[in-house]
Amino acid sequence: MSPSKAKPEEPEFPPQPVNILTDYHVSTTTPEPFYTSYTPNTPIAMDIGSSQFRIGLTNSSSPNNVFPSVVSRYRDRRAQATLTLIGNDVYGDPALKSTIKTPFDGPLITNWDYIEYMLDYSFEHLGVDSDNGRVNNPIIMTEPLGCPLSQRRGMYELLFEAYRVPKVVFGIDALFSYYANKGKDGVVIGTGHESTYVIPVVSGKGVMSQSKRIDWGGDQCQNFLGKLLSLKYPYFPTKLNSHQTTNLFKDYCYVSENYQEELKHILDMDVLEQKDIVVQVPVEIASNPEPKKSEEEIAKQQQKRKEQGKRLQEQAQQKRLEKQAQKKEEWEYYSKFKTEMVNLTKEQIEARLSEDGFDDLDDFNKYMVSLEKSVKRADHEEQEDEFDAGSAWPLVDTPDDQLTDEQIKEKRKQKLHKANYEARERTKELKRQEEEAKAAYEKEQQEWRERDLDDWCTTKRVQLASAISKYKERQKLLESFKDRKSAAAQQRMKNIADLANDETGSTSATQRKRRRNANATIDNDPNDTFGANDDDWNLYRDISNTSIEEEMTNIMTEITNLEDDLLKYDPNFHHEDTFAAATTFDWSSSVLHKFIHGPRPNMTIAMQAEGLSPEEIASHPEVIRKNHQMHLNVERIRVPEILFQPNIAGLDQAGISEICSGLINRRLEREAAERVIKDVFITGGLAKLPNFQTRVERDFRSFLPVGTPLKVRTARDPILDAWHGMQMWADSEECKSGYITKKEYEEYGAEYIKEHGLGNMCLM
């Protein structure tokens, strides 16, 4: 086979940077630290979120313990004990991953036992100690915006009755973060793990009556990204877990400054070259793949298999002959016994049959009938191997009047056997003639190539061009049937109408003559000559597309055979010259290709064009590596855009910009609106997304009057600033007056809270 030539017009692309997919990993050598400077009566700040717990004493500048909100209950069968692992400890052993659970269902707590385990774990690592069996520290804790009464009641019961803390105060994490960043008047956009809040703040106090919540956060983002990738790569060999999709979202997604405009051009080649991210899932590839066998080795293996098959056939034939001999012996033995039965009594016959393993005389007779058939069949096969065709059927040519009734029956059998024998002989002769014709054709072609290779190549190329032209004509005809106004479709409809007219009531002379013949039927009408000529049946073939499709299949087989011959013998014919390669789509203009494979050609298609077998392609190391790659392009902006357009994910809510527009232009008083737009504050984990601040500022400019003073800023530490705000707020007078004591809880109930500028409203 001639070597493949490269297309000169195919541009060379540099390799794309490949990013390795990361998973959640915690080093087992660094367990959660224990705090050694515990002091009683110092407030404990607890930022309890559905993704992380951040807990520490307020005399520290940062939280003492930060760990994920997960629990694993593990049964140690050897120790006969149940172990409870919290936070990062559950990731120390891969066997525990299947038992990981969270106490949250969405933003709400549903398993209070797990929360108690986590608080035990937190207080133990803080070094909480007392001589009265209580936690003697005041608690400052976060809760969601519009916290349900059942959630607050459960937390009150846990803190006041289980830990017997002296007092507790609740607040909203986004407002604590705003307090840590010294905000007074502004719009706080808090993006959390389960939801996003928009809270106006006037004179340092959150206006709860005008606050809004969007049921979309970081957890929904990573879930949505995982679903998009599953839809994009339905047969991806590896299933992504939540940690992997979370890392993909954090590392590669960003907020688009102008989503609609960027979406129009993100799959353009020049833009895709910059935006497309290749993510490689780790995969093990055999370092020493099995070498490809040469043609000589393959021929040896085939010869070896043939010899083994021949030996097996001989062994089977030997066993069959032994069985036949055994059955013949049994037939002779039982036939002799059958003749002796005349002189035996009934008791002797039954005893003999029982001794030979028969139930009764009927069972013996059935076995004899089966044995007789087997012996006759074996004798017949032996006769076929040795018989003479001229003398094998002596009764065939004998007239019936010279034969008895039994001989006439035997004559019919012999005629049937003779017809079968002659049919087999004709089939053998046809097969032999075909093989001889094929061998003669191959010999003729070989002599032609040796005599004049150029002439042979030119002739084959002309035949190939003619076959391709026929195929395209049939393909065009098949496509034209889809257009009912085309000439081919009109002719087809005319043929169908003519057939229907013939069946119902034609006014032609032939049909009138047929109707005059009252005795004529479909079967005996002398005027009905349809079908006498083979061309008549082409009418039905013209109506159906099946004939065209069959013809196209035959032409394609001819094209493939001609191309195989040219690839084998013509030094100037390459795989790029084949019909399949010529009709290959242009990947650079395919939106679907660029969406799935990025701005590079598909390696599998290129290898198929080179003529490699499917097995070679599937086992190629580079193909295996490519099959474990994902391309992130549109998803990078689509997932974060849901914060601004929730309808993308099927959420029937307004986005951040729409909520802020209604808040400033309609719901707030003019003076308050002018004050809050001077400080638009973004906090929470999603605030770390690139371009988030720029997008918010752009959207605000779009609905504010020209020249309106506007300032948009992001928290210094969007994740930990909520805890820092609690730590700073603990020393304020507002905090001291906002505590609820155990006595007040017992008197007023769980629905009672003291209002302050950073918490929810009291509905009592």
Protein described:
- The protein has 764 residues and is an alpha/beta fold.
- Among the domains are: 163 residues, Nucleotidyltransferase, domain 5; 96 residues, Nucleotidyltransferase, domain 5 (2-Layer Sandwich); 131 residues, no CATH class.
- The protein has 28 helices and 20 strands.
- A six-stranded mixed sheet has the order 4-3-2-10-11-20, with helices on both faces. Strands 12, 13, 14, 15, 18 and 19 form a six-stranded mixed sheet that branches.
- α8 crosses α10 and α23 runs parallel beside α25.
- The chain is elongated and about 135 Å long.
- It starts with 17 loop residues before the first strand and ends in a 16-residue tail after the last helix.
- The N terminus is likely disordered.
- Pfam families: Actin.
- This is Actin-related protein 5.
- InterPro entries: Actin, ATPase_NBD.
- It is found in: Nucleus.
- One of its GO terms (cellular component) is Ino80 complex.
What would you say about this model in short?
One of its GO terms (biological process) is DNA damage response. With 764 residues, the protein is an alpha/beta fold. The chain is built from 28 helices and 20 strands.
SS field, number of helical segments: 28
Strand order of the main beta sheet, please? 4-3-2-10-11-20
C-alpha-based Rg, rounded: 44 Å
Low-confidence runs of at least 5 consecutive residues: 1-8, 518-523
Span of the ends, CA to CA: 89 Å
The averaged pLDDT comes out at 83
Structural class: alpha/beta
Question: Major sheet: size, sense and barrel closure?
Answer: 6 strands, mixed
Strand content: 5-15%
CATH class of the domain at 44-181 and 724-748: Alpha Beta
What CATH architecture of the domain at 44-181 and 724-748 would you give? 2-Layer Sandwich
The number of strands is: 20
CATH fold-level assignment of the domain at 44-181 and 724-748: Nucleotidyltransferase, domain 5
Estimate the helix proportion, in percent: 40-55%
Subcellular location: Nucleus
Biased composition (Basic and acidic residues): 290-324, 419-433
Keywords: Coiled coil, DNA damage, Nucleus, Transcription, Transcription regulation
GO molecular function, one term: enzyme regulator activity
